[in-house]
Specification:
This protein has 110 residues and is α/β, with parallel strands linked by helices. Helix content is 47%, strand content 13%. The protein is built from 5 helices and 3 strands, in the order βαβαβααα. A 3-stranded parallel beta sheet has the order 2-1-3. Strand 1, helix 1 and strand 2 form a beta-alpha-beta unit. Helix 3 packs antiparallel against helix 4 and helix 4 packs antiparallel against helix 5. The longest helix is centred in the first third of the chain and has 15 residues.
């Protein structure tokens, strides 16, 4: 069993959470919907206080931006990596792609 954190003001994400809950119930998974106010949602994302979250991220398609969203957390600030994903291999590729000015090399890495 797990809970899905959802901002209560987002009708679309609330509907998606209910669909997810129903679909996973078919295979025996119990999913709770944890609908909270936007401020609480943001605070819990920042703390990593959730099992799963329906969150919207709009990133520029660049290695540096992807690094912020998916790269290993540096210091204590998760940036946009609320799930705290960590991969040294990903970090190395994203950092190398962000550092090069050679378009062909960047494309190969990215």
């Amino acid at each position: 069993a797990f809970d899905v954190l959802v901002p209560a003001v987002s009708r679309t994400r609330m509907q998606l959470a209910v669909v997810l809950q129903a679909q996973l119930a078919r295979v025996g998974a119990r999913v709770g919907v944890d609908a909270v106010e936007p401020g609480v949602f943001a605070e819990r994302l920042a703390r990593g206080d959730f099992d799963a979250a329906l969150h919207v991220v709009r990133n520029d398609p660049t290695p540096a931006t992807l690094r912020q969203a998916w790269g290993t957390v540096r210091g204590g600030d998760p940036g946009a990596n609320f799930g705290r994903h960590a991969s040294a291999a990903f970090d190395a590729l994203a950092d190398s792609a962000a550092a090069t000015f050679d378009p062909a090399r960047r494309t190969a890495l990215f």
